[in-house]
């Protein structure tokens, strides 16, 4: 069982009541800084306080913590008050926090998420790969589970399009929110389902949001015809029956796709500015 005798403490300058150091410890750790030698900012601050005839105010902020809990609380306080502090280290869990001085803007991974997906595009009576390329979209439907696969896509996500029994056929970026077939419009404002050259059953179950086709707009970066799909049998490449799956833990497959499509880094494609994508989806 982990020990829960850790605490998080603060050093406060009694001259202006400003915190200037946060730490974690147990026992008498919170007093130790009073006796340290050195020329660091913390030590200079303590000497200046003592020169004014005052001791620094030391207060415990949280107690009865495990070491991990104490480290996280410490990191949180350091992150929040960084500009006021003499702490040299940013805290053990600083990689979990957004970068400093970035509250004015949205950041991928914190305020929104761009992800790299495997997407099984299908090729049949309800949807066809050539339609995906021509009209700039991906789709799935006829059951709620397939609808969910499309609804899980967000603007900025990158997809590696896979065609069953053939291989990888395209790389694209989602440029707008998914829509049911009866609402999905192309850039010229026309409904996709009104195009005469699309899959013959694309209008099936239009009355049902669970069972109709759903579409998400895509800006295709690289595509190949179905007959030229990229795949290597018995090589361990990812090929799921699922419509949508993450490629985050598939490094060999990602490298294969990058090599075949001539893209140096698929994950860098997910870093584009969301404002540009939102603008593209409105035009």
Description:
This protein is an alpha+beta fold. It has two domains: 91 residues, 3-Layer(aba) Sandwich (GIY-YIG endonuclease); 167 residues, ph1033 like fold, CATH 3.10.590. Helix content is 21%, strand content 23%. It contains six helices and ten strands. Strands 4, 5, 6, 7, 8, 9 and 10 form a seven-stranded mixed beta sheet that branches. A three-stranded antiparallel beta sheet has the order 2-1-3, with helices on both faces. A hairpin with a 3-residue loop joins strand 6 and strand 7. The longest helix is centred in the first third of the chain and has 14 residues. The C terminus is likely disordered.
What is the chain-wise order of helices and strands? EEHEHEHEHEEEEEHH
CATH fold group of the largest domain: ph1033 like fold
CATH C-level category of the largest domain: Alpha Beta
Radius of gyration using CA atoms only: 28 Å
Broad structural category: alpha+beta
Helical content (DSSP H or I, runs of 4+) = 10-25%
Instruction: List the domain count as a whole number.
Output: 2
The global form is elongated
Number of strands: 10
**Individual helix count:** 6
Main sheet summary: 7 strands, mixed
Give the terminus-to-terminus CA distance: 58 Å
- Estimated share of beta-strand residues: 15-25%
Mean of residue pLDDT? 90
**CATH architecture field of the largest domain:** Roll
Task: Note poorly predicted spans.
Answer: 273-283
């Amino acid at each position: 069982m982990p020990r829960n005798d850790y605490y998080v403490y603060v050093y406060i300058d009694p001259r202006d009541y400003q915190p200037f150091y946060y730490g974690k410890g147990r026992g008498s750790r919170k007093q130790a800084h009073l006796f340290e030698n050195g020329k660091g900012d913390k030590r200079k601050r303590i000497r200046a306080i003592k020169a004014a005839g005052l001791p620094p105010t030391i207060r415990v902020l949280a107690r009865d913590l495990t070491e991990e809990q104490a480290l996280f609380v410490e990191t949180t306080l350091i992150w929040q008050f960084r500009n006021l502090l003499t702490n040299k280290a940013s805290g053990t869990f600083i990689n979990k926090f957004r970068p400093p001085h970035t509250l004015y803007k949205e950041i991928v991974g914190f305020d929104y998420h761009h992800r790299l997906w495997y997407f099984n595009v299908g090729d049949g009576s309800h949807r066809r790969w050539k339609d995906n390329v021509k009209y700039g979209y991906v789709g799935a439907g006829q059951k709620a589970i397939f609808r969910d696969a499309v609804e899980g896509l967000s603007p900025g996500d990158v997809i590696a399009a896979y065609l069953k029994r053939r291989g990888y056929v395209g790389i694209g970026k989602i440029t707008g929110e998914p829509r049911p077939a009866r609402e999905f419009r192309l850039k010229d404002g026309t409904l996709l389902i009104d195009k005469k050259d699309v899959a013959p059953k694309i209008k099936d179950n239009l009355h049902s949001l669970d069972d109709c086709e759903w579409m998400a707009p895509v800006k295709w970066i690289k595509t190949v015809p179905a007959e030229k799909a990229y795949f290597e049998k018995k090589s361990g490449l990812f090929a799921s029956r699922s419509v949508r799956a993450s490629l985050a833990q598939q490094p060999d497959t990602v490298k294969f796709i990058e090599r075949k499509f001539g893209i140096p880094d698929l994950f860098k494609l997910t870093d584009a500015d969301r404002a540009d994508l939102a603008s593209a989806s409105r035009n």
